[in-house]
Write a structure and sequence with these properties.
The protein has 269 residues and is an alpha+beta fold. The chain contains ten helices and eight strands. A hairpin with a 2-residue loop joins β2 and β3.
């Protein structure tokens, strides 16, 4: 009796396996979606960092967007121009201008430069400290607790004397530091040259108010603007035109740096 029961069970399982195999085979043919082979080719051409610097969740999503949505082929900050050229060859499209992009920390004030700084005893994170009034006089400057360091997967962010600093030899411009900074002082900029001039301040207050809270803040004196058109004003804050900067503008940029009374302009890269 036991042998019969086992035999029936085995036969039942075998029958179910055959039926399920048939159903799965039918479903595979019925619902098969033809995948464009270019998607795999593009994905294999990407570096596989999955950093999100292109604006997509990862390399696979970006590859699909290139093939199915005609997304630009030059948006990968890690692969750069060579990667764009390879993908452009696969897609048969013009790569266009591929400009290196890297983040810039728009604050140049170390701890000793910040006035009105208090002894903060709360959670040692920028996001938490930013919610507390009076942590430091400048409400625009780097808090220095390293939230950007924590999210950087490439060891490209460090805090030096309370100020976020970028190791450009390691940075791939994934944008993680930009997204996590609660004071939005980190921004992705065009690097047409290895080093570019930048205004290392984000304080939008009037000059006198800036001087009361920081020794390195932009006071809106327009000295840099008077030297070269590479610099312009955003209300009371000077900014550098990174898109236009080229090596031939270096001398003018140096002159603007020398004219800045608070030394808040410098080359980064």
């Amino acid at each position: 009796m036991v042998e019969i029961t086992i035999g029936i069970a085995a036969a039942t399982m075998l029958g179910m396996a055959v039926i399920m195999s048939y159903i799965l085979g039918w479903a595979n043919k019925k619902f098969h979606v033809e995948v464009d082979t270019r998607v795999e080719a593009v994905r294999d051409s990407l570096p596989g960092a999955n950093c999100g610097g292109c604006g997509y969740l990862g390399c696979s999503e970006y590859a699909v967007a290139i093939v199915t949505q005609n997304a630009p082929v030059n948006k990968c900050p890690v692969g750069g121009k060579n990667c764009a050229l390879k993908i452009g060859g696969i897609m048969g499209v013009d790569v266009g201008e591929s400009v290196l992009k890297r983040p810039v920390v728009h604050c140049g004030a170390y701890l000793e430069d910040r006035l009105g700084r208090t002894d903060y005893r709360g959670e040692k994170h920028c996001a938490a400290a930013n919610l507390v009034a009076g942590v430091q006089g400048c409400t625009f400057g780097c808090l220095g607790f390293g939230d950007c360091v924590a999210v950087c997967k490439y060891d490209a962010m460090h805090v030096v004397e309370g100020l976020a600093a970028i190791d450009y030899n390691k940075c791939i411009a994934c944008g993680a530091c930009v997204k996590v900074c609660p004071r939005t002082i980190i921004a992705i900029s065009n690097f047409n040259e290895d080093k570019i001039p930048a205004v290392l301040c984000s304080n939008r207050d009037k000059g006198k108010d800036v001087s009361n809270v920081c020794n390195k803040g932009c006071i809106g004196c327009k000295a840099c603007v008077k030297v070269t058109e590479l610099f312009f004003m955003e209300k009371d804050l000077a900014r550098a035109d990174h898109k236009s900067y080229r090596e031939e503008h270096k001398e003018a940029a140096v002159q603007a740096i020398e004219k800045c009374p608070n030394n808040c302009i410098g080359f980064v890269g």
